[in-house]
Structure formats: C-alpha cells, structure tokens
Design a protein that fits this description.
The chain is an alpha/beta fold. The strands form five sheets. A seven-stranded mixed β-sheet has the order 13-23-24-25-21-26-27, sandwiched between helices.
Length: about 850
C-alpha cells in the first residue's frame, strides 16, 4: 500500500508573498510586514550579503526559509545599496490599515526601483544624469533612446553600431533595455560593461511604440517633436515607456518632450577617443580628468549640462561664438560673475524637484526649497537683462519668475515645513480656518477650558466650579454640593460623589469630540491640502523645467569664465577654414598638477591640409610627445565647447571628428592583444576620415616586431597623406626611420621634442622644435626609473654592439628603396602604351574629378591593358 504523502502547509502570509513574488521574479522583493521590510529565500541571501544584515531562518510548514529584514524607516538607507549593487527592487507595501481588517492585510508592489529608474536622492548623484537606455536592432540601422526619469529628459537617435556605441559612451546609461533575441549581438557590438535587462521581442514594434508615445504625449503624431523620420529611435523610446509602466511608474507629466540627438551637430569621437583623452573618466584610479579641471559649476543642473557639453562639442560657428561672447563678458565683468555665482548657490535642483512634483514623491520641505530656488532666479533675471550682452539678455528674458507658483507655496506652506508630514506644521498659519481651529483645539485646550470655566462661573455664580477629565466620562464640570441649586437645567448630571456632583454640557461634549479627533484630523487635512497644492503645481512643470535649462546654461558659462580667469585661458578664434594654429599651447590637466613654482613648457603648432598636414614627432620616451598630442585635442575640444583655451593665441578651423590612438590599452580580458586593440582602433580611424578630421597617433606599431612596426607606421602615414580627405595628423613615434618620409611626401613635416645631453644624463626640455630626432634615450629613462646600475651598464654595452653591427640607416635606406621602387616600377619599362597611360594619369586634375569620372578613367586604362595583354599572348 502506497504511503500517503503529507502535504506541506504554507501560511497565508507566505501564500501572499509567493503570489506577489511570482509576478516579479527578476526583482528582489521587499515585503512589508508590520514595521519591517522582510526578504525571503534567495532574496534574503542576496540582501544579507549586500546590506550586511543578519540572515536567519524560519520554519515555514516544515520547510526552513531564509529570512533577512530591516526596519521600514531605514528604507532610504538600504534601498540605494541594493540598487547600486545592480539589483531591481520591488517595494511591496501594506495597502490597508492592519487595525481595520481581521483577515490578512492587503499588500501590493507600489514601486519597482531599478538602476535606470530611480527617484531617490540617495541613489542619484547630483551632478550626474541617471539614464535608462533602450537599443532596438533594426534591419539596417539601430535605434537608441535615453530617459532620465529624475529630470524628464527624453532623447532618441538612430544610426550605425559605431554611432550607437558613441552615444552609449556619452550618455552612460545605468541600465539598458534590449530584446532577448539580441543579447549576444549587444555584447559583441558594445561590450559587457552595461547593466542590461532583456525584454520580449513584441515590445520592440513600431505600431506599439507610436501608440505608447502618442498616448503619453496626448498627440496624434510625433511630427511636432521632429522625430517622425527616425523610426528605429521611436521603437526604442516606446520600449522605455513600456518599461516605466511595468515598473509602476505612471505619473510622468514631467516627461513632456521627445528630443532628437542631432548627431551631425556635434564633433564625432569614437569610444577609443573618449577613453584615451580621459575627458570625464579615467582608467587610472585617482587620475584627474579634463572635467575635474573645467567644472566649476555650482548647481546640480549645471554639473549635468557641463558633462553633456564636454561629450558633445559643437560644430556650429554661430553657437560657439554665442557661448564665447558670454564667457568674455563675464571674464571682463568679474563683479557680475561673482553676483551670478552667489545667486546660483541659493538654487536647488530645479529639474529633479519639479520631477518629484509630477511623480508625487516630493516632501513639504522640498516644495519650500523649490519656492526659495525660484526666488533666487529673480535677481539673476534682472542682472542678465541689464548686462548689455545679447546672449545674456536673451537668457534672462526666457527665465520665468513663476510669481503665481511662488505666491501659492508661500501662502500655503510653513517656511520651516518638515520632511515628514507626520511631524506637523506643514500648512501655514492663517491659510485654513478649519485647520487653525483644530490646532487651537489640539494645542490650546487649557486656554479654551479656562475661558469656558470663567464664562460659566459668571453665568451661574458658582465660584468653586472645576473642569477636569477622566477615562470614563471624558470632560466634565464638577460642582460642590453647597452650590447644587445653582446648576442650570441644561447641564446633564453624570456622576454623584460624596461632596460633589459631576455634569456635562452640550458645549463640553462637542469640545471633547473635537479635541479627541483634532490631531488625527489635523494630519488628514494637512495631507489633503498638500496634495491639492501638488496637483495645482503640475500646471507649472514646463515653466520650472525651462528655468532649470536656463540656469544650467548660465552656470556652465560662469564656470567657463572662472576657469579662464584662474588659468589664464584666451579666447580662440573660430573660423570655417580647416587649419589649426596654436601658439604657446598647454595641457589643461597636466599644468594643474605641476609642483608649486614649476611652470608648464608651452608648445605651439600649425596643422593645415595644404602645407603641413602631417607632423611626425620623434623624441625620447618621457619627453612629452603623448602630452603634446592630447593637449592639441583638448584645446580643440575646449574651443568647440565655447570655452577659452590654455594658449597665448589659437585659431581653430572647425573640426568635425577627432580620432586618437594614444597609449597601450590592452584588452587581454577580452582575448585581444595590445597590438590587436591598436590595429582595431587604427582601422576605425582610417575608415572614417573626413576633410575636417583631427587624427592623433601615438607610437603606432610598437605592439609587434620592430620591422613590422616600422612598415605599418610608414604605410599608415603614407595612406593619410595620399587620402583625398588630407586629414590633419599628429604622429608621435620612436621609429626615427619615419623622418625620411619628408623627402617623398610634401605635406609631412618632422619635429622633435628636444633634449639636452649631458655627460652621463639627459635633460628633457619638452620643447617642440623642427627636425627629426635620432635617439630614443630609452636607457637613460631606465636609469631614471631606478633600474639597477648593473642592468643599465649592460644595456649600454649591448646597444653599442648593435649600433656597430646593424646601423638603423640600413632600415631607412631599404624603406626608401621600396618607396622608390613602388613609384617607379610601373613606368620603368620602355613601352609606348605605358608611357601614354603615365601621361594621362599625371595630367589628371584629381581635385575636380568626380567618383564616376574616376571609375570611368580606371575602366579605360584597364581596357587598354587588357587589349595589350591579349595582343602579346
């Protein structure tokens, strides 16, 4: 006979927990039980490790279940830690008062917080956006969208994998939504550093996305946003709105615009360049970035915009000059700059405060802070309008003093309103008669009773009246037996004592009812009035957002002016030409890190497409070649941000792309060698050149053998010289053989970073001078680094032997002969046909030749040669 299996009994609480957890299997569920948030099972194990809280076990119907919890009032302490650890957290609250129900308390998920969807100040970083991203894989293009729910910024774009990769680098989303079926492609194209969440394919549909977006914006089409021509981006944006709905975020009135990221308006930098130039992040711990040097912003909005400006430098001369004009004006008028910065200190995070209004997450203290921030805008607006600078006047005119909003908040809220409404004193005195009366009742009961006692004593003539209360009858009037006959008929006798009688009156009963419910009613009324205020404030969301943008812009321009004054930066001349001329340029980051009293060795250079297109810089290691390359790129970037630059003079022809191959960036963890990474980065440059590109190459070819390296470096330099784009290039190398290229290529020029040789040492002068260098001084550097004397001496002996037996001249001679051979081999035959073809090619005007004409000419030459081949065979 089969044994009867005893079914395990699950408690009603755990049944409820399991039902809710099954709806959110990917999230860590914080389950409210009384005054605690509890986690169970695997969630409890994770929570205990991340939060360092005690893991216990409970017996649940014979099964042991892991358990870990924390007090509900500590949510703001523990939630950020979970989200920063990459967890999606579902907050499950009690939806009814436990006192009002005899069965199990109703519970439900009130919010799902994920790394990319957070409104909690403890999770967010003030000067950094917290973007949720989505990537849609179309047939030919990819779509991308970014949303910061804490500020309301909603952006879309579409393009190639490299364009999307650049945008991911620039906007650095905390979480990226991708289709389940494309997870491997996403990692292949964009790496594994992103925190991703996978959604079903059906979410990524154009019709569904359009419906989602139009419903949200209350529009019939997206034409008004100027995005209807980027369908892949629209699908990504629709996916984000779907995800917000899934994570219980439905109050989104602050998300009222969909903006296209106009990629063609900004300088193009691929991921290698963004990383190599260390603009906002560095792979080296504790390293100073360009952002650290130039960011003097005061407001959180300004800090976030500064990052955006740095990631997306402008290509529009007019917009750049408009920023420069303001910076010049503020740099000259230090008094105005100081006033602006003083006022900016009084402004809170307008963007995030108004977003909290929309989502219903704002507390009374923050509403007062919003009002005070808007008040600080008034003097800024006045000063801007009176400044006599066109851009500042325009900025000032667009600022809204929000008089109605400020007035209403001032009228309704107590200036010292608390964070928590339970603390009371949220609504201002005099706003609500009912509230004032309730407060008088709750907090002035003694005065009221004294007045009543005085009045009743006069009316009855009983001098020994007493008003008191007990738990049985509540409030009562006590009359001694000697005065019993004076008691009015309207009084109701409640209790007889030996020497006295106790009565109640209608007024006392009413007062008692009022006083007992007063505190509860005060809280309820304050909450009701506060919610009414928040609802009314939603009409002013756009005005406050507009202010936030204006203040952020002003803050960044003030930051530029301060940086320019402190660091002696000058205004660069921006023109539509293609030349770059820098006089006495300095590296903005390195110069700030020099020891006290040491001045930076400034260097100038000229790059153009006609005479000095490629500069080959030779010189010893540690002499400053890499710093010079980076310095040039950073000066161009600062100029096109609208900032002033570290130089005595600068003339910048607008650059549209900056490419760098700087420093060894080994990627062994991904199975790629230093050389492979170097070649990948170089390929990206050579395949994307334009006439306005700036190319910076540092030590190309060093990841392989010497001859291989020299050959590759030579071929790359030649390709850049012969390419129709004639991209301006700085090429730092320790291959001195490349100096010979100037003999064959007219637009290549040699420079070296000079050194002074002493008897047993070398002094780095860090000055760029014309001409090539013939030594790398590697052994001197080894000596300076503290390599043992024995090793240094041995190295010197080996070097002398090698120099004696195998002169480097042989290498350059052979390279030169290969070059000559390549140029002459085609025409050294005594053949009339080849002579004819040679003449045709030499007389071709390549500058006016169209691609189609070039193909036709090539076809004609091929036909002649084929005809000759047939005739000779």
């Amino acid at each position: 006979m089969a044994k009867k299996v005893k079914s395990k009994k699950v408690t009603p609480l755990m049944q409820q927990y399991n039902a809710i957890k099954s709806k959110h299997p990917d999230a860590l569920l914080l389950f409210r039980v009384g005054d605690f948030y509890e986690t169970f099972g695997e969630d409890a194990i994770k929570a205990s490790q991340i939060l360092d809280i005690v893991l216990t076990q409970r017996n649940n119907g014979g099964d042991k279940t892991e358990l870990a919890g924390f007090p509900h009032h500590s949510l703001n302490t523990y939630l950020p830690k979970l989200v920063r650890a990459g967890q999606r957290v579902a907050i499950c609250d009690q939806l009814e008062d436990p006192k009002q129900t005899k069965s199990i308390v109703k519970r439900g998920v009130t919010e799902l917080v994920t790394p990319g969807v957070a409104l909690n100040d403890d999770i967010l970083s003030a000067k950094k956006n917290n973007f949720l991203g989505a990537v849609h894989f179309g047939r030919k293009k990819l779509g991308v969208s970014f949303l910061d729910i804490s500020t309301g910024e909603f952006l879309i774009s579409e393009g190639t994998t490299s364009q999307i990769d650049k945008l991911l680098q620039n906007f650095s989303p905390s979480e990226v939504l991708i289709p389940k079926t494309h997870r491997s492609e996403f990692t292949e194209y964009f790496g594994s550093q992103w925190h991703t969440f996978y959604l079903e394919d059906w979410v990524f549909q154009e019709d569904y996305a359009n419906e989602r977006l139009n419903t949200h914006f209350k529009t019939k089409s997206l034409q008004g946003f100027g995005v209807e021509h980027i369908p892949m981006g629209i699908i990504a944006a629709g996916t984000i709105l779907h995800y917000l709905s899934e994570t219980q975020h439905r109050q989104l009135q602050h998300i009222n615009k969909l903006q296209r990221i106009a990629d063609d308006s900004y300088v193009w930098m691929d991921r290698f360049t963004i990383r190599n130039l260390e603009l906002a992040h560095s792979q080296n711990q504790g390293a100073v970035t360009l952002l650290d040097v130039i960011d003097k912003t005061i407001s959180p909005m300004g800090g976030r915009l500064m990052k955006r400006w740095l990631a997306l430098p402008l290509k529009d001369k007019g917009k750049i000059k408009a920023r420069q004009d303001v910076v010049a004006h503020l740099k000259e008028d230090s008094g105005l700059l100081a006033h602006f910065q003083s006022d900016l200190k009084k402004i809170g995070d307008l963007e995030r405060l108004i977003s909290k209004v929309a989502t219903g997450k704002i507390n009374p203290k923050e509403v007062v802070q919003l009002k005070n921030s808007l008040e600080a805008i008034i003097p800024i607006k006045q000063r801007a309008i009176q400044s006599k600078n066109a851009s500042l006047i325009h900025l000032g005119e667009k600022l809204d003093t929000c008089d109605a909003l400020r007035g209403r908040i001032k009228e309704m809220l107590h200036e010292e309103a608390p964070v928590n409404m339970l603390k009371g004193q949220t609504i201002a005195q005099g706003y609500s008669e009912e509230l004032d009366e309730l407060r008088n009742l709750a907090f002035s009961s003694k005065d009221y009773l004294d007045q009543m006692l005085e009045r009743e004593t006069k009316l009855t003539g009983i001098t020994s009246l007493k008003i008191a209360s007990n738990n049985v009858f509540g409030y009562y009037i006590e009359v001694r037996n000697t005065h019993k006959d004076k008691v009015p008929e309207s009084w109701i006798r409640k209790q007889t004592l030996v020497n006295a009688e106790r009565y109640i009156t209608e007024e006392l009963k009413e007062y008692e009812a009022k006083i007992l419910g007063a505190e509860e009613r005060i809280l309820s009324l304050e909450q009701q009035l506060f919610e009414q205020l928040l609802l009314w404030m939603q009409e002013h969301i756009e005005a406050v957002q507009q202010n936030a943008k204006g203040i952020a812009r002003l803050d960044c321009l003030c930051s530029f002016a301060q940086t320019a004054s402190e660091n002696k930066y000058v205004r660069p001349e921006i023109d539509e030409g293609t030349a770059i001329e820098i006089k006495d340029g300095r590296h903005p980051v390195i110069e700030k890190q020099l020891p006290l009293g040491e001045s930076y060795i400034a260097n100038g250079l000229v790059l153009d497409r006609d005479n000095q297109q490629i500069i080959i810089i030779t010189g010893p290691n540690m002499s400053g070649k890499s710093a010079l390359l980076r310095q040039t790129a950073l000066i161009v970037l600062l100029a096109q941000m609208g900032n002033f630059v570290p130089a005595s003079e600068a003339k910048i022809g607008i650059v549209d792309r900056i490419f760098t191959r700087v420093g060894a960036s080994d990627n062994i963890s991904m199975g790629e060698s230093t050389f492979m990474v170097e070649m990948n980065e170089t390929a990206s440059i050579l395949n994307n050149l334009s006439e306005r590109s700036l190319v910076l190459l540092d030590e190309i070819g060093r990841g392989t053998s010497t001859y291989d390296g020299i050959s590759i470096a030579w071929a790359i330099a030649e390709y850049l010289h012969e390419h129709p784009a004639r991209a301006k290039t700085l090429f730092a190398t320790h291959y001195h053989e490349l100096n010979d290229m100037t003999e064959s290529f007219g637009r290549i020029k040699n420079y070296n970073v000079s050194v002074k040789e002493l008897k047993d040492n070398v002094l780095f002068l860090r000055k760029l001078v014309p001409g090539g260098s013939q030594h790398s001084f590697g052994i001197h550097v080894a000596k300076m680094a503290g390599v043992p004397q024995q090793v240094v001496q041995k190295a010197n002996k080996i070097l002398k032997k090698l120099e004696a037996s195998h002169r480097s001249d042989e290498v350059s001679d052979s390279l030169q002969s290969v070059q000559n051979e390549m140029q002459l081999s085609f025409f050294n035959l005594d053949d009339p046909l080849l002579e004819k073809i040679k003449d045709e090619i030499l007389h071709l005007d390549i500058d006016t030749l169209t691609p189609v004409e070039a193909l036709m000419k090539l076809n004609e030459i091929k036909r002649l040669l084929t005809k000759k081949k047939r005739a000779t065979s």
